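pinging the channel bc i need a second pair of eyes. not urgent but kinda urgent?? the chain im working w is below, pasted from the shared doc
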Amino acid sequence: MATVSVTYAIHRSTRCRGIRLTVKPDGSVRISAHPREPLGRIKRFLEEKTPWIVKTIEKIKARGLCTPLRGPDMEYRRYKSRALLYLRTRTKKLAKQTGFTPKNVRIRNASSRWGSCSRKGELMLHYRLVFLPPDLCDYVILHELCHLMHFNHSKSFWALLSQFVPACVSMRRILHKDGARLASEAAAHYGANQP
């Protein structure tokens, strides 16, 4: 029987009650827990859930959903400046539509997030957003802009986002299922056609 290696990250949040486990579309595992949750208890929880984690990762691989979100370092260096220019310009336009203006927009080569919003009002956007279809790219930017009003994923947040992206539920599903693959394929095609 083949051995499956499981890599996980622990995220501490005061909003978290108990221990939450998430297997992401790229096969990575995220454990969310309150800062006071003992590490020993988290490790025991992980051991108990290992069979389920392995089974879930195998299902993801069988469906071909394990394309990593993080791009190669060489690709990131090559397209970072262009991505920053495009994404800042696009964010500025969408900010005018929503009325929500971030303090800054930064570009990253993250391994598990297309974007994030800090409590300081700064947006972090993945450089590979420029390789996604425009509607998916705009969805991510609008998602993060709405976090400037609701720093959570409450019903109020989703209601606000749906005002700007009526199909936000299906967009989220497509992004999680196919986003990394679409971006990877588009980046490869674009790179192959560059001098």
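so The first helix runs from residue 39 to 62. and The chain is about 50% helix and 15% strand. — does that match what u expected or am i reading it wrong
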